[in-house]
Specification:
Elements lengths: L1 H26 L5 H12 L4 H12 L3 H17 L3 H25 L20 H20 L3 H24 L5 H31 L5
Helix pairs in contact: 1-8, 3-7, 4-5, 5-6, 5-8, 6-7, 6-8, 7-8
C-alpha cells in the first residue's frame, strides 16, 4: 500500500506540473519566453548538417505510422511470449497517447515557434505529441523489460539505452524548431504522470494473472 501511495503521489505531482504549465500557456504565454528562448538557443546552436540528420532520423521513429507499426510488432511479440498484460499495456498506452495528444492540443492551441523548422509539422505546439508518445511507449518498455530481464547488467544496459533514446527525442523536437522546451517538458510530465499512476494497478494485475496461469 505504501508503494502504491508513493507512485500515486509521484504521478499526481507530475500531472500537477503539467496543469500549471498548461495554465500559463493558455493565459500567460509571454511568461514562458524567458524560459524557452535560452534553452532553444543553447540546443539549436549553429545547426550542423550531421546533427540535423541525426535528430531528423531520431524523431521520425515516433512519427504516427512508424510508432503504430513498431508498437504493434512489439505487442504481438509480447502476446506470443504469453506476456499478455504487457501486450495490452503497450496497446492501451498507444491509444491513450493518441487521445491525450488530440485533446490537449485542441484545448491549448499554442502556435508553433516562429523559428526555422527543420522538419514539416502541422497543428498546434502544446504539448509535444512526439514527446508524449515516446515517454509513454518507451517508458512502458522500460517498465516491462526491467521486470522481465533477470541479468542485472543487461537490465541496466537496456534501461540506459531506452532512456537515452527517450531523451534524444525530447531534445530533437526543440532542435528541429517545431516545439518550445516547455512543450516537451509538459509532455514528459504527462507521460511520467500516467506511467506512475498506472504502475501499481498494472503490477498487481500482472501478479494475479501469473498466479492464475493466465500468462507467464
Amino acid at each position: 500500500m505504501k508503494d502504491k501511495q508513493t507512485f500515486m503521489m509521484k504521478g499526481s505531482f507530475a500531472l500537477l506540473l503539467f496543469v500549471i504549465l498548461g495554465y500559463i500557456v493558455k493565459f500567460y504565454p509571454n511568461m514562458l519566453i524567458g524560459f524557452d528562448q535560452p534553452i532553444q538557443t543553447a540546443i539549436r546552436g549553429d545547426l550542423p548538417d550531421s546533427l540535423t540528420f541525426l535528430f531528423r532520423t531520431i524523431t521520425h521513429l515516433i512519427d504516427i505510422p512508424v510508432i503504430i507499426t513498431w508498437v504493434l510488432i512489439v505487442a504481438f511479440i509480447f502476446y506470443r511470449k504469453q506476456w499478455k498484460l504487457e501486450s495490452y499495456l503497450m496497446l492501451g498506452n498507444l491509444t491513450l497517447a493518441g487521445i491525450l495528444i488530440v485533446t490537449f492540443k485542441n484545448i491549448y492551441q499554442r502556435p508553433r515557434p516562429e523559428i526555422v523548422h527543420l522538419v514539416e509539422e502541422k497543428g498546434f505546439s502544446f504539448p509535444s505529441g512526439h514527446s508524449l508518445a515516446v515517454t509513454l511507449m518507451v517508458g512502458s518498455l522500460i517498465v516491462i523489460l526491467s521486470q522481465r530481464i533477470k541479468n542485472t547488467t543487461w537490465r541496466k544496459v537496456v534501461q540506459i539505452l531506452l532512456s537515452l533514446y527517450l531523451v534524444s527525442v525530447l531534445v530533437s523536437r526543440v532542435y528541429l524548431g517545431v516545439h518550445y522546451p516547455s512543450d516537451v517538458i509538459a509532455s514528459l510530465c504527462v507521460g511520467l504522470g500516467v506511467l506512475f499512476m498506472e504502475f501499481p494497478f498494472y503490477d498487481k494485475l500482472r501478479f494475479q494473472w501469473r498466479f492464475k496461469g493466465k500468462q507467464k
